[in-house]
């Protein structure tokens, strides 16, 4: 299915005293990758929110394999697991510069109406863009 890659350097503030990336930062890395995945299809998360659609995370799992360290160049590969309905699911693989797998992750997000906070179907314009 559809995938995207984004690379960036680990910042000092994201690490503990041993220079290892704090595990809580991985959720932010996944969010960054997911937003860029959408942007790659011409879909702005900001414009979705402005049009009354929210995408909260309803499930997050991360399996850590190796540590990432300060100043490492890491790459997050984002893959759409299946066509979205009311939920959209992504799989991720995070690599270091040596192409070693640092972590594998999965997130599930739900499409919600911003006013009612009720689940809604994935907007047609999103489906059209990711299926083209």
Automatic annotation (TrEMBL):
What the entry lists under PROSITE patterns is as follows:
4HBCOA_THIOESTERASE (PS01328)
Enzyme category, top tier: hydrolase
Record-stated family? Belongs to the 4-hydroxybenzoyl-CoA thioesterase family.
EC number(s) for this protein? 3.1.2.-
Q: What is this protein called?
A: Thioesterase family protein
In its UniProt entry, the species of origin is given as Pricia mediterranea
Q: Which domain of life is it from?
A: Bacteria
GO function terms (MF aspect): hydrolase activity
Pfam families assigned: 4HBT_2
Q: Which UniProt keywords apply?
A: Hydrolase
